[in-house]
Structures are given as structure tokens and as C-alpha cells.
Amino acid sequence: MTGDGLRAGRLARRVGQWASHRPRLVGAALGLGMALVVAGCGLAFIVNVQSRPLVALPLFLVAIVVGVAPTFVRNGMWSPALGLCLMLLLPVASWGVSQAILNWRGEEVPATVTKIVHIERSAGTGEKYHCTLRLPNGRTKFLTDREACGVSTRVGDRVRVYVDPYNRLDFPNATPPWPWLTPAIVGTALGLLTLMAVVMASLAMGSRQRTLDQSPGSKSSVGYERGGGAE
Fold it and tell me: What is the mean pLDDT of residues 11-17?
């Protein structure tokens, strides 16, 4: 093994020893990292969903995988709680942020229907249509909404949609944004969910380390048993 390899191995062992003595700190860092990944993917989704779907959809799937992963860790209640926080964080970081942006600076503008695609639906779900719209700035966006794009819609019709004038959102809204989803409320929700994810991950890692320490054959368990025998 080369000198660089030996140094890398020693560094990895030191990091592992350091992390094993600070499980809650490591868990908090992992929780923060997972929360940032989920929130970042949610934000990237609403920015790229129509213009770059091959980027947006994989990122959204990554966020789902990261959010669901802790629920498969069978170690107390903290890991499922972490998964729940992350899964709540995803819609807040995507749909919630989009509503907050529209409430903050969204504009209602007229759009012209340039194309209609009929999407077949199975019995009981009703018919659905996919409309292509041309906005006043010349941009083309897609809309799927039963009221604004339905059976009575025709090419050339004018519909009213809500858009972000700075084009940060990659899709129009056919309905007004929810008025109570303001930037302050959504930002607070993002902060609280991120904090909860950090705390839950820290508690989960601490619980896991305690389980390992108390398991038969572990160093702390052996030391405890020897100490009890000495008494």
C-alpha cells in the first residue's frame, strides 16, 4: 500500500473513532444534510419541472428516497419520526414555496391556448386535458386543470393564470394561491421541519449507539459486566 493509502486509512479510522464517541453530533449533521437534500430537490423541482423534466423528476425521486429511507431503520421511534419530518418537508419545499412566491409577487395574466391534448382516464376518474399555453411574454407553458383546461376548452381561447413574473416558477397556476401560505409562514415551516429533522436524527443516532453499547460482546457491555463482577 502506498503512503497516501496508509494516511487515508489512518484518517478514516480516526474519523470513525471520533464519530463513535459523538453519535448525537453525527446524527444531527446527517439530519441536517438529509433535510437540505430534500428541500433542495423540492425547490429544484418547481424551477425545472416543465423546462427540464429530465432533471426535475430524478431530483424529486431522490428526495422521496432520502425521505423514506429512515422509516426502514428498525431502531426505536426516532427513525420513523425522522422519515415523517423529511416527507413533510418535501411538499412544503415544493408546493408550499410555489404558493408563497405567487402570494408574494405573483401576477394574474391572460394566456392563449395553443394546443389541447385529451388524456384518457379510466372509469370513475373523469376526463382530463393537457393544454399548451402561450403567455404574454411569449413563453410556452403547460397546464392541466379541469376548470381552465377542460372539455369545453378550444384552441385560441383565453384563460387567466397566475405566474411568477421573474420566471422562477416553471409552471402557471390556474387558481389563486392560498392566501395564508405567505413567505413568512412557509419559511417558518421549513425552518421548524429542518430543526425537527436534526433533532430526530440526533436522537436516532444516540439510541442506536446505546443499543450497540449494551449489546453482548461490546466493549462497554464487557466493561460493565466486569465492573459488576468486581463488586
Answer: 56
